[in-house]
Amino acid sequence: MQKCGNNKIEMRKITILIHCEDQKAIIASVTNYIASIEGNIIYLDQHVDADENVFFMRLECEFSSQNWDIEIIKNDFQTNLATPFNMYWEIYTQEQKPKMALFVSKYDHCLYDILGRYSAGELPLEIPLIVSNHEDLRSVAKRFEIPFHYVPFTKEIKAQGEQQQMDLLKKYDIDFIVLARYMQIITPNLITLYRNQIINIHHSFLPAFPGAKPYHSAFKRGVKIIGATSHYVTEGLDEGPIIEQDIARVSHSHSIEDFIMKGRYLERSVLARAVKLHAERKTMVYNNKTVVFS
Amino acid sequence: MQKCGNNKIEMRKITILIHCEDQKAIIASVTNYIASIEGNIIYLDQHVDADENVFFMRLECEFSSQNWDIEIIKNDFQTNLATPFNMYWEIYTQEQKPKMALFVSKYDHCLYDILGRYSAGELPLEIPLIVSNHEDLRSVAKRFEIPFHYVPFTKEIKAQGEQQQMDLLKKYDIDFIVLARYMQIITPNLITLYRNQIINIHHSFLPAFPGAKPYHSAFKRGVKIIGATSHYVTEGLDEGPIIEQDIARVSHSHSIEDFIMKGRYLERSVLARAVKLHAERKTMVYNNKTVVFS
Amino acid sequence: MQKCGNNKIEMRKITILIHCEDQKAIIASVTNYIASIEGNIIYLDQHVDADENVFFMRLECEFSSQNWDIEIIKNDFQTNLATPFNMYWEIYTQEQKPKMALFVSKYDHCLYDILGRYSAGELPLEIPLIVSNHEDLRSVAKRFEIPFHYVPFTKEIKAQGEQQQMDLLKKYDIDFIVLARYMQIITPNLITLYRNQIINIHHSFLPAFPGAKPYHSAFKRGVKIIGATSHYVTEGLDEGPIIEQDIARVSHSHSIEDFIMKGRYLERSVLARAVKLHAERKTMVYNNKTVVFS
Amino acid sequence: MQKCGNNKIEMRKITILIHCEDQKAIIASVTNYIASIEGNIIYLDQHVDADENVFFMRLECEFSSQNWDIEIIKNDFQTNLATPFNMYWEIYTQEQKPKMALFVSKYDHCLYDILGRYSAGELPLEIPLIVSNHEDLRSVAKRFEIPFHYVPFTKEIKAQGEQQQMDLLKKYDIDFIVLARYMQIITPNLITLYRNQIINIHHSFLPAFPGAKPYHSAFKRGVKIIGATSHYVTEGLDEGPIIEQDIARVSHSHSIEDFIMKGRYLERSVLARAVKLHAERKTMVYNNKTVVFS
User: Fold this and answer.
1) CA distance to C58, C68, C82, per residue, from C90 (Å)
2) Active site residues of B
3) Cβ atoms within 10 A of the Cβ of A237, count?
4) pLDDT at A1
5) Residue B207 contacts A, CB cutoff 8 Å
6) Is A99-292 a domain of CATH 3.40.50.170?
7) Where is the active site (chains A, B, C, D) (predicted)?
8) Distance from CA of D293 to the nearest CA of B (A)
9) How far is CA B289 from the centre of its chain?
């Protein structure tokens, strides 16, 4: 490792994600390889899931070489490391911002929050597309000058809705989808196409209160803390890998309306944090759980 | 109201708890009464459960009168307020410390914590009795010089165990019971006898993960936050009115053992806070929920 | 008190704030008065500052009377209660939304956040005016269709800037001012004119790190928790009454840039909560401290 | 790396701490070395202080070799790694529990808490000694059967007190000292002798409210959050490297006594966490800041 300060040479930064069966000498081999191509490791975190015997690693490296070529690195990585260790791996350059589609229905608070953070330059991603099953939030999209597509979606026209969604996602070259209080089921086909690439915000502290009306259930139970959970969407309702959770204190003096209002604060910030973690390639999924290198 | 500083007159302090059907002029009537007997209100909090139409109030008052008589006040209160408003009420003098029995099994961390706080003078209560279905913690009780009674309790000898428990509770004139990780079912008879007077600590963020091994379930689900819940014991397992909850963040890097260790921190402090709130008469129960005037 | 459900009679709701020297029978007198004019108390909270001997109270009442007249109530209140008890008081009807001016400079994250929440209907106030000493954020104001006024403000043209600010505040009939990371000093004249009506967000956990560059100071000190503080503006820099604070955990692994980014999350939510509390008339100021009835 | 499950071979576990100037290939060299001696890395975390250009690493490794010899490993490590990279390093076997001295005065809540956790088996350390400048807590030490030494300490007899302390620390072979609300200055000589090995708990959220009576200052300032800070003791009062901090919410309704009581909860848990982190060799100090690998 070597610190590269404000020198004149332009530095290229890449992020590497790895998981594979746990074996001897993985870290040594990967760090040797980085050293061999003159890279400086500026971040390294690793995790071993002892129950599943799986090894996870995330690295950020800087390269100053002028002849630097990401494709050559990828090829070398595959040959020298991924094949012998039977690794699953991803490599991203800093310039590659993922493209995110926002799915919304009628609630606007998460939409305003994400678009505000996006406009303020806090999210390393692009939002080329907003999809909704209602027309209500078209004006919000317009304010932020983002294309808005109305895609009706009900049980009766599910196949047609799904096709329209898929066409749009393809057309806009979308990498991942964020459900910002989108109130419709995501079809299994779409889940398969975007495996671990669809982020939902559920308005409870999962696994407590899955499904509809969680604030009403929380109020009825008399809990002293409410929560929100952001997770990847899987076939099981509210059962996908959890990315981020947060909580707020409530008391007997709070009405259901207070729960809902406090919950909106939570939903916003939990979703924003999950989106940021995903866009920064800090999450990995295995066995319906996430490894979050934050 | 009137502040009473460091004057020489000895002040008598009482706490009043009230609940009744919500009606006009309750607060005016109660505060008029306190004013009429020369009391100073030093704390007043009230709550209306709009769904159930129930009114709750907690007051702390000071009296300087030398002819002060708590029994006369109680009689007057019954005649002038409780009867016309059909109130449920309790009045305590500051001197009346509730007597608490600790039920334990083999886990010692909550026991050490409560006895430490008790010895440090932080809990306004007396602990005349520790009951256990194992002998393991007798030495801890001995360290703190508190009577320890071994009461075996299994399915086969339930009736006998219950009888022994009841005899002890009666003998030591116990007001309320704290289950400090006591790993046996409380019998319906005991629950009835100590309705809303038995406090349990459950090692999860209820209603998530009720029952056995909640940390294992939380680990398997991949949650990012674990919790602990203190509640009054009812006939439904882990379904009683919640008094206090708290949480701690966990990540993929934590093992089940880490969850359990972090959980022990939570269990301790959540149980201690619940016990303190109860001993200070700051909790009221209605409709399987608590009103906590803190 | 009496619950008024979904009946047909339109209910009028008012909020009453009181503070005065602590005396006997204040609560009884006020609640008697409310009962006498057929009001239902739906919220009552009170506080006695024992050191200063000051009594504070906040009430929300509902009236169903068709002949209801807020001016008569105010007159009666003055005659029957405020004069004899020498009270400071305020009464608001639910319809009176306060008018808020936003002061900004170049940071846009708090501005986006407040305008997003405002547009999502979460803040009970009106925003007729944004004032800035830079042109940078005009486009954000335009997106949300709120008048934006550029008022240059430097040491050299302080008097002129202050005059322009005051003219605008008067023209738009502004009730209170929010400094959403406005990076200029507020003049003593403006502070006097809007005493306890100017809310600032400071990006540290006051009183730690007042003044400029608090995240840099926090980083240098190696703190494990950073914070943000919303307070009323007084003549002393960052010394005004604190309305709301919140914190976030940091570690050695976070850079100054991480501190700043995490801080932006905090600043946003702390400021939003303070603005909401103020707009709901839940704050009272006394002796450079706030009473917050939340 | 390789998982070693419940096999029969006894595993030896060591912890390695390293810091040195940041250079290329440190991680590769260290992990290569571990691989070369058949060690399995079960934990690795590293940090680069970019401002100071310092590299920090913490590893936990397991060895199954029957001919395993810690002294040989230490020698090899020095020759092959520490010398070429000019490293500061420490290696501990799992069996080496550090010996801790508790310094106390009259407050007993932190003492009870630590001794309770210690007795419950939660702290990987030994407590052979309690030192106090008062006799008050001798009975607590006796309950837990730990030697208690009364060492008077005032300005007049500073040299004598210091000598007695040093003699005791030497006699009991003490590795680190915990000031559990010890209310006397630690002498520079002792600080030098136990550099970064003396842990204090300060009852405020440093750097706010250093010095005496922080709860009173916090109350006067009207903060909405109070805190506690555990730090290593240096020559500057309350200015040493921070290990752990935590906070609790307060409101206008809390008196100074409430602040103090809530603060006791904080002090206890913050100190306990700091002690645990230190005993597990998870802390490193550099430039008056801590790196905490937790």
Assistant:
1) 10, 18, 10
2) 238
3) 13
4) 39
5) yes
6) yes
7) 238
8) 12
9) 13
Q: Which pLDDT value is given to residue B98?
A: 98
Q: How far apart are CA B166 and CA D139, in angstroms?
A: 34
Instruction: Compute the residue count for chain A.
Output: 294
- Closest to B25 measured CA to CA, from C40, D93, C267: C40
Interface contact flag, C242 D253, Cβ < 8 Å = no
CB contact under 8 A, D205 and C225: yes
Subunits next to A (3 or more Cβ pairs <8 Å) are B, C, D
Does the domain at D12-93 match CATH 3.40.50.300? Answer given as no
Taking an 8 Å cut-off on Cβ atoms, the answer to whether A223 and B245 are in contact is: yes
Total beta-carbon pairs less than 8 A apart between chain C and chain D: 77
- β-sheet bridge partners, residue C48: C55
CB contact under 8 Å between D32 and A34, yes or no, is no
Contact D45, D32 (CB under 8 A): no
Q: Taking CB atoms and an 8 Å cut-off, how many pairs form between chains B and D?
A: 43
C280 touching A, CB under 8 A?
A: no
Kindly report, residue by residue over A112-163, the tens digit of the pLDDT. Answer: 999 999 999 999 999 999 999 999 999 999 999 999 999 999 989 999 999 9
C-beta of residue A112 within 8 angstroms of C-beta of residue A30: no
pLDDT at residue B67 greater than cutoff 90 = no
User: Distance between CA atoms of D91 and D83, rounded to whole angstroms?
Assistant: 15
Tens digit of each residue's pLDDT (9 = 90 or more) over B256-270:
999 999 999 999 999
Q: Report yes or no: A46 at the D interface, CB cutoff 8 Å.
A: yes
The structure tokens listed for D293 are: 């690998």
pLDDT at position D71: 92
Which residue ranges in chain D fall short of pLDDT 50? 1-6
Radius of gyration of chain B (CA): 21
Residues B262 and B215: their CA atoms lie apart, in Å, by 10
Quick one: A6 exposed, middle or buried, by C-beta within 10 A (0-12, 13-18, 19+)? exposed
Report pTM: 0.94
Average pLDDT across chain D, whole number:
93
Q: Say yes or no: do domains B12-93 and B99-292 share a fold.
A: no
HEC secondary structure over chain C: CCCCCCCCCCCEEEEEEEEEECCCCHHHHHHHHHHHCCCEEEEEEEEEECCCCEEEEEEEEEECCCCCCHHHHHHHHHHHHHHHHCCEEEEEECCCCCEEEEEECCCCHHHHHHHHHHHCCCCCCEEEEEEECCCCCHHHHHHCCCCEEECCCCHHHHHHHHHHHHHHHHHCCCCEEEECCCCCCCCHHHHHHCCCCEEEEECCCCCCCCCCCHHHHHHHHCCCEEEEEEEECCCCCCCCCEEEEEEEECCCCCCHHHHHHHHHHHHHHHHHHHHHHHHCCCEEEECCEEEECC
Computed over its alpha carbons, how large is the radius of gyration of chain D?
Answer: 21
Catalytic residue among C173, C175, C238, C258: C238
Q: Which residues of A touch C261 (CB under 8 A)?
A: 122
- Picking from B133, B141, B103, the residue whose alpha carbon sits closest to that of residue B275 is B103
Q: Is B247 on the interface with C (CB under 8 A)?
A: no
* Segments making up each domain of chain C, as ranges: 12-93, 99-292
Mutate to test the interface with D, among B109, B114, B292, B293 (most CBs of D within 10 A): B109
Whether residue C236 lies within 8 A of chain D, CB to CB, comes out as no
Structure tokens at D279: 């005993």
- Which tokens go with B168? 């002890």
Which of C268, C270, C282, C292 should be substituted to probe chain A, the one whose Cβ sees the most A Cβ atoms within 10 Å? C268
Contact status of B55 with chain A (Cβ, < 8 Å): no
Positive or negative, the Cα torsion across A107, A113, A116, A118? Answer: negative
Q: Give me the amino acid identity at A185.
A: I
Chain B contact for C7 (CB, 8 A cutoff): no
Q: Nearest CA of chain C to the CA of A84: how many Å?
A: 32
Note whether B140 contacts D122, CB cutoff 8 Å. no
